[in-house]
Write a structure and sequence with these properties.
3-stranded mixed beta sheet, Arc Repressor Mutant, subunit A, about 150 residues, two-stranded antiparallel sheet, DNA-binding, alpha+beta
Chain lengths: ~150, ~150
Amino acid sequence: METQILTYREVLDRFKKLLKSNNLKYTKQRELILEIIYNNQGHFTPEDIYNLIKQSYPDIRIGIATIYRTLTLLEDANLVTSISFGAKGKKYEFGLGKHHDHLVCLVCGAIEEFYDETIENQQELIAKKHNFKMTNHIMKIVGVCKNCQSKQGS
Amino acid sequence: METQILTYREVLDRFKKLLKSNNLKYTKQRELILEIIYNNQGHFTPEDIYNLIKQSYPDIRIGIATIYRTLTLLEDANLVTSISFGAKGKKYEFGLGKHHDHLVCLVCGAIEEFYDETIENQQELIAKKHNFKMTNHIMKIVGVCKNCQSKQGS
DNA sequence: ATCGATGCAAAAGTTTTGCATATAC
DNA sequence: GTATATGCAAAACTTTTGCATCGAT
């Protein structure tokens, strides 16, 4: 699941185009948020992203509000997607990679990704059967990962 | 998806037994929370439940904290299950009905339920393949329901 | 009588908003 | 120069916690 379909340059161009066509401005803050999400494979809370930027770019001034505002923007544009964690908010990941679903470990919080053709097809069928215009689907398998099973004995 | 497998009496007995065996007390508040969730088919936020109880039982004193505490208890006991809504917290539903997944309408928020054997089987396979001990799975198909499609033209 | 449960209010988180200032265009 | 974006702090929510009191056993 490591393979990015698009290079960062391509993604950035797409983002710039998007901004332009909506009369929005291209700012360093917006770029950094996208870059952090593209480059660091993984799933991040808004605060994670805020901290990563503060750490990696100590000279840039940025506020948590900008992170939230930009994530909303990026998610609307499908450049990032989010996965929910109950009341604890969302984690975001890059949205233009290969589609996949998630295995979430209850013990250590680790997230594995998978892709399954059968599931994908079946979802289409179900949406059709219910006259639903599907725009997205979320599938999480929740449990205990291999690592944590061996640590605590089973 | 309307069929409850257990009568309310059976559910309540199970709850009482559970409480007893954990040295917890049977209170009116706890019963009402379970009853509201059992009787009103649907998906409720803690606040929904709080308001329903205030409305239906004006004489009972109850605080929102009790709702949260009891929902945690009920969820641990599998008497209710929850479904997440991004940062907006969780909705709870009765947990001993037939297992099912959800179709969520982005426009009106309606939740439809479905059960699909192929998906269920495939999830088992995927968990096994990843050495995951699956305790739960969440599948949501997000989109626009039939009703809302016709209202806004497609 | 004991010990857990409750309501309330305060606290802790998380996310959003208002506004003056800064910055892209 | 104008309009949008930003940081900051305050506000709005949601959820949790501490504590005195209540109530089930």
